[in-house]
Amino acid sequence: MGNGFGHVPSNGWEHYRHPEITPGPNEKPTFDTDLGFPNGRKERVMVATEEEMRSAKLALKDRDYCAHLLLEFRSCRRENWPWVVKCQHEKHAYLNCQYDDFLLRMKEYERERRLRVRQQRQGIEAA
Amino acid sequence: MSLIRPLTISRLCIKNHGILYTAVRNHWNKDFKPGEFPKTPEQRALAAEKYQLVSEDYKPYPNDGSGLGDYPDLPMESGESKDPFYPWDNPELKRNFNEPLHADVDMIGEDRYDVTARHRVPVWLQYVQFFAWMGGAFVLYYIADKMKWFLAAAEKQYPRNGKHYTFEPKEE
């Protein structure tokens, strides 16, 4: 897929023209997670515990796999206020984590799409 | 103090206090009320004289229960369309002294609606332009709504929604 935003309009078009092989936005992957990985895949690790997030009153939308970095960043801001620029490292770490998280979602999307294409191709070959 | 003295209560109670006397004696609602609808030619002539119109120009509103009585049906003419260079007695309102007012004078003043306006684009064409524009926009929206742009990303992964995996194979 394209690197910039070039895929954004083409996604819309492909989703309209070929809905059977093009997943929509924010869809849950449908195939077996270990398909194509003989030993399976490494599981994502959640560092922050439920109690930590609850005591920090973290919004539900922030309770993702980067929550521990967000907690660190927020506590750093609180300790260093108003010299929050001292937390640049924590902020950078958190944003990088979010970037990688989104990258994983894009990979999941592309995996889903390719598996659907493969399934369709196999169906045609079998028929 | 001399400015305040004329406004004391005792002064207001005097019969020949001009403002109060006029307001109380001459400006009751009954004085604004038009007369009966004129039925005979004599009544018409009297009504025309009352409104200071020549009898050819006098034409009452139809007697259909609107309550306008003998009030004259004057031509609908907005302040905008009156000649600004004519030496009006009252140039602000473009009105001459004792000139009868239109029944809808509160609507057709210069600061209100212009009923005599001549549009550069006729009104039917304005409607066509409006619906063509809105309809065109709706058609474009209807077409584009079927193929919404989106970033190629699967759902956001939250630990509370079950297990998620990286793309690194497990080493065993």
TrEMBL record, chain A:
**Species:** Ignelater luminosus (Cucubano)
Gene Ontology CC terms, in alphabetical order: mitochondrial inner membrane; mitochondrial intermembrane space
> How does the record classify its membrane topology?
Peripheral membrane protein
Write down what this protein is called: NADH dehydrogenase [ubiquinone] 1 beta subcomplex subunit 7
The organism that produces this protein has a lineage beginning with: Eukaryota, Metazoa, Ecdysozoa, Arthropoda, Hexapoda
- List, alphabetically, the PROSITE patterns matched: CHCH (PS51808)
Localization recorded for this chain is: Mitochondrion inner membrane; Mitochondrion intermembrane space
Q: Which family does it belong to?
A: Belongs to the complex I NDUFB7 subunit family.
Q: Which UniProt keywords apply?
A: Disulfide bond, Electron transport, Membrane, Mitochondrion, Mitochondrion inner membrane, Respiratory chain, Transport
Role description: Accessory subunit of the mitochondrial membrane respiratory chain NADH dehydrogenase (Complex I), that is believed not to be involved in catalysis. Complex I functions in the transfer of electrons from NADH to the respiratory chain. The immediate electron acceptor for the enzyme is believed to be ubiquinone.
Keyword Disulfide bond among record annotations: yes
**Do you know which Pfam families this protein is assigned to?**
NDUF_B7
Q: Does the keyword Electron transport apply?
A: yes
Q: Where is the region Disordered? A: 1-39
TrEMBL record, chain B:
Q: Which domain of life is it from?
A: Eukaryota
Q: Where are the transmembrane segments?
A: 124-144
Q: Which UniProt keywords apply?
A: Membrane, Transmembrane, Transmembrane helix
Establish whether keyword Phosphoprotein is in the entry. no
Under the heading InterPro entries, the entry gives: NDUFB8 (IPR008699)
Cellular component, GO, one term = mitochondrion
Looking up Pfam families in the UniProt record yields:
NDUF_B8
Q: What is this protein called?
A: NADH dehydrogenase [ubiquinone] 1 beta subcomplex subunit 8, mitochondrial
